[in-house]
Amino acid sequence: DAKTTQPTSMDCAEGRAANLPCNHSTISGNEYVYWYRQIHSQGPQYIIHGLKNNETNEMASLIITEDRKSSTLILPHATLRDTAVYYCIVRDNSGGGADGLTFGKGTHLIIQP
Amino acid sequence: GAVVSQHPSWVICKSGTSVKIECRSLDFQATTMFWYRQFPKQSLMLMATSNEGSKATYEQGVEKDKFLINHASLTLSTLTVTSAHPEDSSFYICSARDRRTSGYGEQFFGPGTRLTVL
């Protein structure tokens, strides 16, 4: 799976949009971009994933650049409960997603009141 | 939907004893379950992959005789830490893939089990 690069930490004001960047310049055509987050002392939570089109669900939006070398996770109206470590993971699903996930260091997002 | 539970949520044991951790998919059947370990201030590390009815596949550096995995049904996997030592103290987290959406690959994680070995 391709390697990802994320900022170590970010701050965002409560109520504002949080934009979390992720670089994945070596991504290949079969690889999807996944986002998970982990609130302190809990298991990770799936947020969203995409291949090349932008995606939106009830939690967030995922914007993937046309060349697919980077992406941005957008939390439209951040709340204090969104404070967590956010992981961007690139993985090949051609095997049906049968492999475990490789977590990097992620971005520690801190929502400020 | 897609809820995964773990039991116990925390456990303290003496060095040399064995500890069993259960992982259950509550509202779906899991094709595959995964076990991860997370040390303080570090990221999750995949330990092993288990498929129902077959032997688990362990990641390099993970001792299969120390971390016994049993995946007896499509909704239950267990991890037994045998002869636990203080260095095994960690946060153990399981995840499961929903059999219905297995092609998409997203995994659903349990809340984790905090193991402390004295």
Q: Overview of this structure, please?
A:
The complex is a heterodimer of chains A (113) and B (118). Chain A is mainly beta and 113 residues long. Helix content of chain A is 0%, strand content 46%. Chain A contains no helices and 9 strands. Chain A has a 5-stranded mixed beta sheet with strand order 1-9-8-3-4, with no helix packed on it. A 4-stranded antiparallel beta sheet of chain A has the order 2-7-6-5, with no helix packed on it. Chain A is globular. The mean pLDDT of chain A is 92. With 118 residues, chain B is mainly beta. Chain B contains no helices and 11 strands. In chain B, strands 2, 4, 5, 6, 9, 10 and 11 form a 7-stranded mixed beta sheet that branches. In chain B, strands 1-3-8-7 form a 4-stranded antiparallel beta sheet, with no helix packed on it. Chains A and B meet through β3 and β4 of A and β4, β5, β9 and β10 of B.
Number of β-strand runs of chain A: 9
Unreliable segments of 5+ consecutive residues of chain B: none
**Reading side by side through the largest sheet of chain A, how are the strands ordered?**
1-9-8-3-4
Sheet with most strands of chain B: 7 strands, mixed
Percentage of residues assigned to helices of chain B:
under 10%
What is the count of helical runs of chain A? 0
Task: Count every helix of chain B, treating DSSP H or I runs of 4 or more residues as helices.
Answer: 0
What topology emerges from the helices and strands here?
The complex is a heterodimer of chains A (113) and B (118).
Chain A: E1 9-13, E2 18-23, E3 31-38, E4 45-50, E5 55-56, E6 61-64, E7 70-75, E8 84-92, E9 107-112
Parallel strand pairs in A: 1-9
Antiparallel strand pairs in A: 2-7, 3-4, 3-8, 5-6, 6-7, 8-9
Chain B: E1 4-7, E2 10-13, E3 19-25, E4 30-38, E5 45-51, E6 57-58, E7 67-73, E8 76-81, E9 90-98, E10 107-109, E11 113-117
Parallel strand pairs in B: 2-11
Antiparallel strand pairs in B: 1-3, 3-8, 4-5, 4-9, 5-6, 7-8, 9-10, 9-11
